[in-house]
Amino acid sequence: MLKNNYRKKNFFAVLGLFFMSQLCSICCAAEEKNENSTYELKLDIAQAITLSLAKNYFVRVESFEPKIAWQDIEFSLGEFDPVVGFETGKNKNDSLSSSGESVIAEQTVRNERLYLNGKFPWGTQYFLQVSNEKFVRRYSGNSRDFDVSASIEVTQPLLRGFGVDSGLASTRLAKNRYQIKQAVFEDLIMGTVRDVAINYANLYSAKKNLELRIESRNLAQRLLDDNRKRVAVGRDAESEIITAEAGVASREDAVINAEKNLRIQENRFKLFVSDDVVDLLAYRILIEDLNIEKFSGVDVKQDFLMALRKRPDYLQAKLGLNASHIAIKRDKRNLLPSLDISIRASQFGASDTSRSKAQDSFSDAKADGLSTQLNFSMPILNRSNRAQLRSSELVLAQKELDIKQLEQAILVDIDNAAVRLDADYRRVAATQRAVDLAEKSLFATEQLRKAGRRTSFVVLRFQNDLANAQNAYLQALSAYYRSYINYRYEIGEILEYFNVDLIDTPQK
Questions:
Q1: CB 121 within 8 A of CB 317
Q2: How many helices (H) and strands (E) does the chain have?
Q3: What share of the chain is helix, strand, coil (3-state, %, to 5)?
Q4: Percentage, residues of the chain above pLDDT 70
Q5: pLDDT per residue over 343-367, tens digit each?
Q6: What is the tens place of the pLDDT at every residue in 376-397?
Q7: Is the N or C terminus of the chain more exposed, i.e. has fewer CB atoms within 10 Å?
Q8: Are the beta carbons of 240 and 220 closer than 8 angstroms?
Q9: Read out DSSP for 410-434?
Q10: Domains by residue range for the chain, with CATH
Q11: Rounded to whole angstroms, how far apart are CA atoms 22 and 205?
């Protein structure tokens, strides 16, 4: 009885271990399958652009630049922030001195001061303060004095430092740099959109090229199968099979190269649309066909004027010119002598009994003091300010020439893009005609082959001609799309073409 129970326990233990081992095997297999599995990501051109702007590391890094530049504006405006302060202290003097018939043994001074100072953009500086002092003197007869005073002082530059051209120069330059950073970021977005569209076209071309190579290999394989049937019935020599097999092998090599190129283009495209590091290679990208616009001609002169309004690089140049004008206005003002006028008004109240009576005395009193001061200074040679002004004027002249050079370059780039666009469009029509003729030639040759009037070598040659014509058409179509996208980029319209909105451009 005990022996049977022991055997049952061993049986169930072994059975449990068996099921556990099977479960572990299934889990490990599932995990391995999950690690090795790939998934597909389907994208059209609009989705690809959206992903590139959201996940591209370079775009995300550069998006901080306008935000940083905005903080420079806030920093420059901080120059005009009022400053409020409070000071309090106690001073005790134990030195002995005589005062009439009494001898002062100790004097304690308690003081409190509240002040406000600042500067206005046109150069005016102000300083307001209210002070409260208490004097305690100990000698043969104790004495207490309470003093309350207030004053305001205003200093206004009359020459150097006068006006907003000097006071707001740093803020205007900071705003100018911020606008330049925005233009640089917009230029980066435009370039990214163009690069995504072009790489999308390259990936599409690689995908279609693989399909063409597979179709060409299938044609050769079909010829090989027909030759084997013809040889089997004695209608052809064995050499026809060898010729067809050589054709299949050659086409297989082309398929392998096409697969390699497709994978390389796919990996290159992933860098635009993905921020994955570990799982970057864990999925395949499936793209839709290109939406190719029909060419209807361009007006280079009108598009040139449009480019001057929309291209960020031209806007950067104009903003740089504006910065030079701001600097020149500032430097001209700094070249003047320094002439400042200061006006100070003060009021005083005192009491030897209490602070409240001192304050009453202060409120009842009229202004106790009004002073005016005029300060003048000027460097004898003033070489540093003269050199600064001359340098700013030279930079302005340089930037004016840079803008003319840029306008010339933009015009030439637009014209070159228009020439390429027109040529690539005509190439599409020409290569399409070549494909049609190659298909007719191959069909006629295949008919002659069936009649025994053409060899396999001739059929393979016409198949190659058709494959080359199809590949030329594909390359022309892809080149036309790239030229169309590049033309939109050159005239500054690529964002509008792809409906990319820059409302979310970082500002603050």
A1: no
A2: 13, 10
A3: 65, 20, 20
A4: 81
A5: 988 877 666 665 665 555 656 555 5
A6: 998 888 899 999 999 999 999 9
A7: N
A8: no
A9: HHHHHHHHHHHHHHHHHHHHHHHHH
A10: 45-71+170-323+391-497 (1.20.1600.10), 87-119+124-160+338-377 (no CATH)
A11: 48
